Queue: 2 jobs
Job 1
Amino acid sequence: MELKDLFLTPLYLGIFYAIAFAVRKRFTNSLTRKYFIPALSLKFLGAIGLGLIYQFYYGGGDTFNYFFHTKVIYGAFGDSFSTGLKLLTSQHPPDADMLRYTGQMYWYDAPTEYTVIQVASFFALFCFDTYTVIALCFAFTSFCGVWAMYVTFVKLYPTAYKKLAIAVFFLPSVFFWGSGLMKDSLCLGALGWAFYGFYHVFIDKKNIFTAAVLGGLGVYILLSVKVYILLSFLPPALLWIFNENNQRIKSATTRMLLKPLFLILGLGAGYVGATGLTAGDEKYDVEKIGERTKINQQYLTHYVANGSAYNIGDFDGSMGSLVKVGPQAIVVSLYRPFLFEARNPIMLLSALEATLFIWLTVSLFYRTGLLKGFQLILGKPILTFSFLFSIIFAIGVGINSGNFGTLVRYKIPLMPFYLAALYIMQAMASAKKAPARRPQLNNPRKLRRLATTE
């Protein structure tokens, strides 16, 4: 960070807040309005805090590597606009004018990292290439997607709107790691847009054009930056669509007969989508997933662990090894590190969140009973989707990470969905025991206009 960060950050914060207050009335209602500014403020806090932690605690890291590349592109614009534009659009192969710049950028040929650099460089053009302001831009962009996620959950289950806000906005790991100049910020926002788009296009079937554009943008970002999030999201999302449409069939007998068919179609479409999206990809091809996972696990465990390693066994990509390590991967992703495993303040925060997940999960199934709990999950398509996505994603990141230091970042996309599902189940269980009045909106028409992305 530089001196200009101190002068420009307050100015741009004022601009962002002015925009937020100007649009808040349009994109909120009586239930959600009070969370709009606090949630945005936490994103800004996370963006600035992440930069400070990386600078003064870690002494560097990915966020400053992205910024270094951004500085190179920004400098190229100062020398030659056309050359800067070629770098910004990632022209391949680079021409003679670009070589002096591409030679400095070790991520120029790394598509996933360079996508983040392109977004950061675009923002840099409007803020004098200031690290903290670029981070705020990432936070604001991520917030738009996360807000879309929240209002979709609220539309699906309005009575749980308070606790849904906790699940989506107020988990420390999520707003810290998902706000700054990192892949995670873009992907968290993109996941929110994809979730919003799938619901509005295929289930609610309203505001289809806008939802399709935003959902498509979210899918594109995930495909470009972290395709494994999309691979985890796609099968449960397709199953969600089939389940919702199945429930609209009036005949109970027809519903029962068609449900297995919908299940097979959803899982089949998800598998075809996953293999099609990753075919030929060196990092994510389904055929190579066992080999890549083993390499990642060994590297992250032995070279980046710093005392926070865990071991769930070897995974070679076979179904047998998946059955063996899958349950352990779910436990480590959702419920660890335990409090006694915390080695530093960041791990302690993650351990506190994991403890919350343990307590809510155990208390909820204790109250409802194991069988009734599963009946609730299978009977409500949004719960089936949320838990299935969380489990698939938990297995993936739990197997790949190898240490809690990386796991705390990798797992943030599943955390809002898992906790939101728990809170919805909690509200459903309470409603069955003591039916409560459904809160009413001041203006029901605004329910379709909650998201900042509409």
Job 2
Amino acid sequence: MTLILLVILAALVFTYINGFHDTANSIATVVATKVLSPRQAVMLAAVTNLGGAFIGSAVATTIASGLVDPKVATSEVLICALVAAILWNLLTWWFGMPSSSSHALVGGLCGACLAAAHNNWNVLVWSVPSPKHWWLGTGLIWKVIVPMILSPVLGLVFGFLVMGTLYFLLRNWRPAKVNKTFGILQLGSSGFMGISHGMNDAQKTMGIIALVLLTGTSSGAFDQLPAWLSFLRTAPPEANQPLAIAAWIKVLCALTMCAGTALGGWRIIKTIGHKMVRLHPVHGFAAETTSATVLVTAACFGMPVSTTHVVTTSIMGVGCAKGFNYLRLDVVERILWAWIMTIPASGGVAYLLVKLAQVAGWIQ
């Protein structure tokens, strides 16, 4: 029981760090274009993140029951996975690199479970096709690998197309009118961005908490619980049905994400909003609208995609429409390396933590 509570605590710490680590994703452009002050943008992001966390639970279900064998994901293993993801998030935040919290969590979860299963790769759920629609399959291939490649490409392409279309439509507008109009419209697009961030990122930790509660219920750890703690029991889903996420889990994770967002993430805001390409309100509107649309679509299909990847490539697409010479390729290169390293780095750390715990006798 104590270990299960420690997992929940670690999951909430991850959510809080995710809040200030990924705050930049939803507010960097609106700050860079000077439509809102940093304080105003953070408050907008906090409120919209909170609202987005309550919309749907498909991403949480994927994390809880669609990536690894729940029998291997014991409390000790999940703690190692979360610690690895937290360490990677803090490291990249310190250096101001917009890496993916989503992929850090997925990498940590897979690395920890693989070590706990003594290198038995069958504990990882690679692919479970849907009986009706092939694109609705579950597992790492359909929910992580394909979206990991496809979502940044969509962000780049649609960011370029949206910005190119706006250039064409606004070609006869005066710059002052463009800035004034899209300064207002960007308030809506940045709010949309915050909602999409909450729909995606807050739900990932909901899935971890639901997973540990399911494991605890199945193992009999909750058999002696007093009546007032009965809400911790989580019944396994019926055949071909998703795992239900309890309302109290949604509330807890949403409020924690909101608190973390309110703290802000100025190091990463500087990288995304200022270093890659100089932005004006029309560019911010195009980037945020593109990013939020891709993220909401992915969330509806239960795909825990990287908010960071989508936002960054959307800004890159907007920058390319403005002119390739406006893009800072040296900054882009650093970000690409952070993307490449995230899953193997967090997975490797989680793997080592589990192995150390096995040597110490904490994990069998």
